Amino acid sequence: MSSTFENPLVVGCGSWGTALALLLTNKCPQVHLLGRNQSAVDQINSSRENKHYLPGITLPPNLITTTDPGIANNADLILFVIPTSATRTAAENLAKQSISKTTVLLSCSKGIERETGKRMSEIISDSFSENPVAVLSGPNHAEEIARGLPAAATIGCSDIAMGEALQHTFSNERFRCYTNEDVAGIEFGGALKNIFAIAAGVAAGLKLGDNAISALVTRALAEMIRLGTQLGGNPDTFPGLSGLGDLMTTCFSPHSRNQRIGMALGKGQKLQDALEQLGMVAEGVPNTRSIYEAARRVDARTPIIDVVYAMLYEDVPPAEGLDRLFRQSPRNEVE
Predict the structure, then answer these.
(1) Which of 16, 130, 319, 326 has the greatest number of beta carbons closer than 10 A?
(2) What span, in angstroms and rounded, lies between the C-alpha atoms of 29 and 24?
(3) Helix 183-205, helix 318-326: angle, nearest 10
(4) What is the pLDDT of residue 3?
């Protein structure tokens, strides 16, 4: 396998898709960004800036944005960087093109499908059964990656050589990539952390203090390891970048959409109003339902997820929801 990829395609013109496309322009002669909205695509191409999602970031000339899905036929690497709810449809639509069976498909979205409980890499494989599929995850805010600030990520791939090729393609002096063969663990860590960020945001909005938020995030990691392992992940993966690393960033950063949603709820705002004000997808909201149902299928103990579910879907007031957590009967910390 080539040590790098020459013609990558990024599906999704949001902030993360644009940031990853920008990252790839450092090593790839040409990078294509596939969007759905022609006016948004025209704006990016004419101004060399994604004004809606990444204002102030200049995009280089070797990044070309298009609405033509046929561009996928020439790609040797395709990144899926779209809302999890749109992944299946996007994969099914791309499968109608004449994409080479050697083209590597990389999932960069975090969540699971409610109806099936499948991870994003599994959904992509449903439409591309013969193509290699990998995942990329970690504590990566698009705003910082696009500005060239230091960051690290994990690439999950069962094929070691392919994982190393992806690692080489993405890594530079400001973006450090690690590899891990535990694809399931990486994906579950990325999906779970968004739910916990909502809880952390609620605690911040209620002004419960640093002690409470730190305790909440620490117990969230324990819950992530417990549930993620029951769902098929390796417990050693969750203390890594795609688990603990992403959890810290998402729970504490003002860039975090899910933390901002939680904070708005904690301050008394209605969920729908908070989502409209955000103006972007907060994956933790739909994935709370998906993960809650997945946890029930394996009979997992998930007190934090249960409380976030109750706040989002059972109209439990945020203060009452977090009170439920802190009023639980004491137990051994390692159980």
Answers:
(1) 16
(2) 9
(3) 110
(4) 60
- Taking 60 as the threshold, does the pLDDT of residue 2 lie above it? no
Q: How far is CA 328 from CA 33, 168, 206, 254, 308, in A?
A: 48, 47, 19, 29, 15
Q: Which of 216, 196, 195, 199 is nearest to 290 (CA)?
A: 195
Q: Can you give the pLDDT at residue 279? A: 86
Ranges of H-type helices in 13-136: 15-24, 38-47, 84-94, 120-127
Nearest-Å Rg of the Cα atoms of the chain is: 19
Placement of tokens 């998906």 in the chain: 290
Q: What is the pLDDT of residues 101-150, one digit of tens each?
A: 999 999 999 999 999 999 999 999 999 999 999 999 999 999 999 999 99
Q: For residue range 3-41, what is the model confidence (pLDDT) as tens digits?
A: 679 999 999 999 999 999 999 999 999 999 999 999 999
Catalytic residue numbers?
193
Q: Answer yes or no: are the C-beta atoms of 141 and 249 closer than 8 Å.
A: yes
Report d(CA 261, CA 287) in Å as an integer.
14
pTM for the predicted model, two decimal places: 0.94
Of 281, 261, 257, the residue nearest 82 (C-alpha): 281
State in Å, rounded, how far the first CA of the chain is from the last one.
44
Q: Which residues partner with 9 through β-bridges?
A: 32, 78
Cα–Cα nearest to 223, from 297, 129, 295: 295
Joined together, the tokens standing for residue 81 give 């960087």
**Domains detected in the chain:** 8-181 (3.40.50.720), 191-326 (1.10.1040.10)
Amino acid identity, position 118: K
